[in-house]
Design brief:
globular; 3 helices; 5-stranded mixed beta sheet; alpha+beta; about 20% helix
Length: about 160
Amino acid sequence: MKELKTVALAAFLGIVVAQSFAFAQADDDDDDQAASKPKAQMQAKAPQVTRASKNVPELILGSKSDDFAVNQKDFELVAGQGYRWKITSAAGFEYKFFTDLFRNVWMNQIVINDLEVHMNGAPAWLEFDSPGTINVQFTAVRPGEYTWSIPDLADKGMKGKITVK
């Protein structure tokens, strides 16, 4: 009986390994194209994903002189890459930061004043009742185009786009 199980396991593993090689070879038709493309063109593809988290440029909401100022509206990320994103309220205004990106990432943690929040799901929004910074750490998972906004102030320019390639 033991020999029969061993033979069955070996046959199963043989089938699995053979299929993986077949799939790899079926998709391997770009050898001729790769040789004909200049090296610079091949390197101009998407940025390489690394194991270390990268910093997203800080998003600063408001300023001492303008409650509706935003330092950057559009952001570009790469799927599979880990990121740290500082979102700062620099004015005395109350901001409710919303983005549909958070429903399409693996959320690692949110840090506020060195206190960590770990979740098993996305936050609905981040709320700033006073000036301060919230640091969000996540891995971009799903490519697409997402929006961010301060919903009640989007018509005043407090909105933007996040592209995940």
